[in-house]
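In the design runs reported in the main text, the only information available to the sequence generator was the tokenized backbone. The following block is the verbatim input for one such run; it is reproduced so that readers can re-run the procedure and compare outputs position by position.
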């Protein structure tokens, strides 16, 4: 990240791009402000305040009086004990939303819609081109299933506060087990199926999971993914193995169960007593979602119950424009933040129907798959990653396939997870003829930092920008010394504390790591890890990570964890992994290794071995396919490997050679290797 570089004509005042200043005082609500049974559509539901200037008014309200703003939004949630205090700011830099309130997130997502007479409305549609099946659940059916799953987990000893790992493909049991944990007040942690056993074991250990919910297998278009054998391997690797597992048996590849430890999902649910929702503190954790940091050790992002429910309800209506009765499809695996927020929780909290898709944008069976799903289920809002649209575009460059389906119900396409390149944005807008909305957020925030809020007030689009900060987010661009830079100048994207409801209160079991990773760089600010700038109109431009995190096909990965695998090889003296530009996946990792002196090894054999090791240790999701054996790595005089310089050369750019370089000849020798694709 280059700080101090002008991108547009700058204004030289430090704060001129900041829309407002926000108070951090804690506040109290009168008991009369809230009551159980407040309607899900309350607060800032779309339409309440919608119209010209609605966005700015909402942003300013959230900035000047966050307690009042979020208290208002909290009316969309049914509390078993309504909040009297909105924000606990007693222990900065740690903040807690709705510290004295109680609720059950699952009851908010399911039971209350049944209680409101909407039990026969559709809650979940599982569309699975890989198995050729479609299954629909009404709110009543889903509530019953979830209550049984909660009963089954309780029978295995799961209680409020216990952790449950969910390692499942995109099948209804994934949604059901997440909600079942929420019903019990247990804490779920979903692990994406593309991760290898060692990664699963690390998460089992960090969370000290009591139970793991998994399946016999998953189905990728080109192969069967053997979940159960991977789970068995992970349990063997774990220092703190779970007491029990619940296994969904799939006909495509059954798996043997270990007596006493493993239990069949269907049998357990059939035998279970339905469990009622357990009220929990708003500040209790709802889930942990592990995400890649700069080291090999993943960070356990904690999501609370109360702030999360409020943020989900607010954003579903105001950002995505989805209300009760609408159909939302977030085509992301539930192993990622988008899947948690906008496939599972937010649509159901809003009383909308959600689509769970077990397939790919292309190849299941073709690049028209997304449009078929939209038409068949009457999807109103589609949310995916730019890489999925790039994959579709590559196979349907002229955009012919959408024309074969009735897409008249589709109001908008939201894209997030990585930078939205203008060509992909243009293709989607032209082909679909609807708003294509770039929104920027992170696993840590759980909902958009910046977007055009479709439900509140659609904003004019600027190519390459996810538009303006959402209410509750005060985005500042800081230089290396922590001073705000003028508009148009690049710097570190930071968020002024406190962060709004729904964002991470801490890392699982590690307040110190939370503070060290995010809060210490600049006093009073959360460090996003992204570089970027704000333009004269306050529009945000995200230029990419400033750390060792890369985005591969919308999946967040750590180059540090790949380097750790390479470094373990006995022949390797030094290594570096950098994320280089890829036309389909946005970025892909590339390895560079130096062999120890005296070691004789065929570079091709070594490279193949290293590729296999990364797949084996981290998983296929890493897409680690290229490693070059080189004689030396370029470094600064203090020994820091010049990863960014190498990445920029690999991307075809000509970066300035840092003056601190130890030996420019090393970098010169590498240029042809880096430029070769
Ligand atoms: N379980 C097991 N393996 C998985 C998996 C899962 N849930 N998801 C992906 N993988 C495997 C793939 O099979 C592939 O394995 P391979 O090396 O044997 O081919 C590997 O991981 C890499 O997967 P991916 O990077 O997804 O590539 P792909 O070629 O299978 O698909 C896209 C490319 C663009 C179609 C796909 O990446 C995609 O749909 N991306 C959208 C991402 C997204 O929604 N992100 C959420 C954030 S918003
Ligand atoms: P994840 O935690 O997996 O959601 O990844 C978060 C990271 O993805 C961010 O820190 C950004 O680097 C990147 N990202 C997400 N959305 C966008 C976007 N709309 N534009 C640019 N980068 C994005």
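Verbatim output:
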């Amino acid at each position: 990240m280059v700080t101090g570089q002008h991108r547009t004509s700058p204004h030289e005042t430090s704060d001129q791009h900041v829309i407002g200043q926000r108070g951090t005082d804690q506040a109290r609500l009168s008991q009369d402000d809230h009551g159980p049974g407040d309607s899900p559509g309350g607060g800032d539901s779309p339409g309440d305040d919608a119209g010209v200037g609605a966005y700015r008014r909402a942003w300013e309200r959230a900035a000047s009086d966050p307690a009042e703003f979020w208290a208002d939004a909290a009316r969309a949630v049914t509390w078993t004990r309504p909040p009297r205090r909105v924000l606990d700011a007693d222990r900065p830099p740690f903040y807690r939303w709705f510290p004295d309130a109680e609720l059950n997130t699952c009851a908010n997502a399911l039971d209350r819609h049944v209680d409101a007479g909407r039990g026969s409305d559709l809650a979940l549609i599982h569309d699975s081109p890989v198995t050729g099946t479609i299954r629909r659940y009404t709110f009543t059916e889903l509530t019953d299933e979830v209550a049984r799953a909660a009963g089954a987990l309780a029978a295995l000893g799961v209680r409020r506060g216990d952790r449950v790992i969910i390692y499942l493909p995109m099948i209804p049991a994934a949604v059901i087990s997440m909600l079942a944990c929420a019903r019990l007040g247990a804490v779920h942690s979903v692990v994406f199926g593309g991760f290898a056993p060692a990664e699963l074991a690390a998460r089992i250990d960090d969370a000290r999971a009591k139970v793991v919910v998994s399946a016999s297998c998953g189905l990728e278009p080109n192969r069967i993914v053997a979940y159960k054998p991977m789970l068995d391997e992970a349990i063997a690797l774990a220092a703190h193995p779970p007491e029990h597992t619940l296994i969904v048996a799939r006909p495509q590849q059954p798996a043997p169960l270990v007596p006493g430890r493993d239990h069949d999902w269907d049998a357990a649910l059939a035998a279970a007593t339905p469990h009622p929702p357990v009220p929990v503190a708003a500040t209790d954790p709802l889930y942990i979602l592990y995400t890649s940091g700069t080291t090999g050790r993943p960070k356990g992002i904690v999501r609370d119950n109360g702030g999360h429910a409020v943020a989900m309800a607010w954003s579903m209506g105001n950002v995505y424009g989805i209300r009760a009765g609408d159909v939302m499809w977030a085509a992301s695996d539930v192993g990622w933040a988008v899947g948690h927020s906008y496939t599972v929780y937010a649509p159901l909290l809003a009383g909308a129907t959600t689509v769970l898709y077990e397939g790919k944008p292309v190849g299941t069976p073709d690049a028209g798959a997304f449009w078929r799903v939209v038409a068949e289920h009457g999807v109103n809002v589609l949310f995916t990653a730019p890489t999925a649209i790039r994959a579709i575009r590559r196979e349907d460059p002229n955009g012919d396939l959408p024309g074969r389906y009735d897409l008249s119900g589709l109001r908008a396409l939201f894209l997030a997870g990585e930078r939205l390149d203008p060509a992909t944005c243009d293709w989607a807008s032209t082909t679909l003829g609807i708003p294509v909305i770039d929104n920027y957020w992170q696993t840590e925030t759980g909902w958009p930092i910046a977007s055009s809020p479709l439900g509140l007030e659609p904003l004019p689009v600027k190519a390459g920008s996810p538009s303006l900060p959402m209410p509750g987010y005060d985005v500042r661009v800081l230089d290396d010394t922590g001073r705000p830079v003028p508009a148009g100048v690049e710097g570190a994207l930071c968020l002024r504390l406190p962060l709004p409801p729904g964002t991470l209160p801490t890392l699982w079991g590690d307040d110190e790591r939370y503070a060290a990773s995010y809060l210490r760089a600049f006093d009073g600010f959360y460090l996003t890890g992204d570089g970027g700038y704000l333009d004269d109109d306050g529009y945000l431009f995200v230029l990419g990570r400033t750390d060792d995190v890369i985005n591969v096909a919308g999946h967040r990965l750590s180059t540090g964890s790949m380097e750790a695998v390479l470094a373990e090889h006995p022949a390797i003296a030094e290594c570096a992994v950098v994320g280089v530009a890829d036309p389909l996946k946005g970025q892909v990792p590339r390895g560079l290794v130096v062999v120890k002196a005296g070691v004789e090894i065929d570079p091709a054999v070594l490279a193949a071995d290293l590729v296999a090791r990364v797949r084996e240790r981290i998983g296929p999701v890493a897409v680690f396919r290229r490693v070059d054996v080189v004689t030396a790595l370029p470094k600064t005089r203090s020994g820091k490997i010049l990863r960014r310089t190498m990445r920029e050369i690999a991307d075809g750019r000509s970066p300035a050679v840092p003056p601190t370089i130890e030996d420019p000849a090393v970098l010169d020798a590498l240029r042809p290797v880096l430029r070769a694709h």
